[in-house]
């Protein structure tokens, strides 16, 4: 009898866990049969999932890498996050409206863009932790944001690069869903937004190299070298991408998350040169170099994409790797200086005007430990 009760309890726990993984809202939605039919027509969809153009794995799981990673985690690093909250500049509407085109960094990969009067949000992760659970996972370094969702100017469109928690946040989407004119995403991401209450008619999904016209801008869904997934069973079910944003006189590039690859040069040949490129430079490790660039590779990729001013992103908000939290900024600015690449280093919330040649370049993080 005791064995039966124990077995029943175990089965019940397993079923409860499965149901939780399937129905807990932050894990996202599941694509419909019609959506899946379209995805199978993509050149990036092979077998049962999306894949990179070149062989790539999130982690090189050999014994040496596994042993060294466990050793590094056990050892720890007291400098993986700042000892005090990072300073944040509040978004100044007057400064923001002053320029027809500008870039405002919200930390990590979240960006508020103004491109010839059109307002775009890119990867607006405004939540407190890069996790499906606000009380666990890597907590945000800053105590506040440059602006809460309710304080933002009218947003014309939101662009997402992929569905990882540090880019696509349930609580943020719930706040944005009735305040945005369009959600523009790579293939497979619509299911998450629809489950969270975004009306399907406001969402457009795109494959690599697809172009769309939006309020006088040309937006291009371009390749990246990464992966996707929010749960245990959805690896590769949605696509990942970078974005080209082109107006009549201004062109911007946003790399999304990506390992180094030949796609940067291809994007540069087709759409460059750019006035500015927002390039990931953090949360890296040689053991997962296929899917996140080292800072020196960031500068190389920036040159190949013909990026103009380099705006480093994917740092300054969450600890997702074992390096010192300041290392991405130190290494990418050093490499940029050696390569003759102009690098902007805005504080969180600082607005960079585009097309003026003026950009912040102070090492503000050096006074924070």
Automatic annotation (TrEMBL):
Q: Which organism is it from?
A: Paenibacillus gansuensis
* Protein name, per record: MBL fold metallo-hydrolase
Transmembrane stretches, by residue range?
Answer: 6-24
Kindly state which keywords UniProt assigns to this record, in alphabetical order.
Membrane, Transmembrane, Transmembrane helix
What reactions does this protein catalyze? Answer: 3',5'-cyclic CMP + H2O = CMP + H(+); 3',5'-cyclic UMP + H2O = UMP + H(+)
Entry keyword Ribosomal protein: no
Q: Name one Pfam family in it.
A: Lactamase_B_2
Q: Where is the signal peptide?
A: none
From the UniProt record, list the coiled-coil ranges: none
Q: Where is the Metallo-beta-lactamase domain?
A: 120-315
């Amino acid at each position: 009898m005791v064995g039966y009760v124990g077995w029943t309890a175990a089965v019940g726990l397993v079923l409860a866990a499965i149901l939780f993984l399937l129905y807990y809202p932050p894990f996202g939605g599941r694509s419909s049969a019609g959506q899946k039919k379209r995805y199978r027509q993509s050149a990036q969809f092979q077998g049962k999932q999306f894949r990179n153009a070149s062989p790539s794995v999130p982690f090189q799981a050999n014994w040496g890498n596994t042993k060294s990673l466990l050793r590094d985690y056990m050892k720890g690093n007291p400098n993986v996050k700042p000892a005090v909250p990072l300073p944040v500049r509040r978004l100044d509407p007057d400064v923001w409206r002053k320029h027809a085109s500008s870039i405002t960094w919200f930390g990590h990969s979240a960006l508020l863009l103004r491109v010839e009067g059109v307002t775009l949000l890119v990867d607006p992760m405004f939540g407190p932790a890069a996790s499906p659970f606000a009380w666990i996972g890597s907590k945000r370094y800053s105590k506040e944001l440059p602006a809460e969702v309710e304080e933002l100017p009218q947003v014309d469109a939101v662009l997402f690069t992929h569905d990882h928690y540090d880019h696509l946040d349930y609580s943020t989407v719930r706040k944005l869903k009735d305040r945005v004119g369009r959600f523009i995403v790579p293939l497979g991401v619509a299911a998450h937004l629809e489950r969270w209450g975004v009306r399907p008619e406001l969402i457009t999904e795109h494959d690599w190299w697809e172009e769309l016209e939006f309020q006088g801008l040309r937006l291009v869904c371009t390749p990246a070298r990464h992966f996707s997934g929010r749960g245990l069973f959805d690896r590769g079910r949605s696509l990942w991408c970078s974005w080209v944003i082109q107006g009549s006189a201004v062109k911007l590039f946003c790399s999304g998350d990506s390992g180094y690859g030949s796609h940067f040069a291809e994007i540069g040949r087709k759409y460059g040169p750019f006035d500015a490129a927002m390039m990931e430079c953090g949360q890296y490790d040689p053991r997962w170099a296929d899917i996140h660039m080292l800072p020196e590779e960031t500068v190389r990729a920036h040159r190949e994409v013909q990026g103009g001013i380099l705006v480093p992103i994917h740092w300054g908000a969450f600890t997702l790797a074992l390096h010192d939290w300041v290392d991405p900024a130190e290494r990418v600015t050093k490499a940029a200086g050696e390569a003759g690449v102009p690098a902007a280093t805005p504080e969180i919330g600082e607005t960079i005007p585009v097309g003026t040649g003026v950009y912040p370049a102070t090492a503000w993080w050096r006074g924070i430990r």
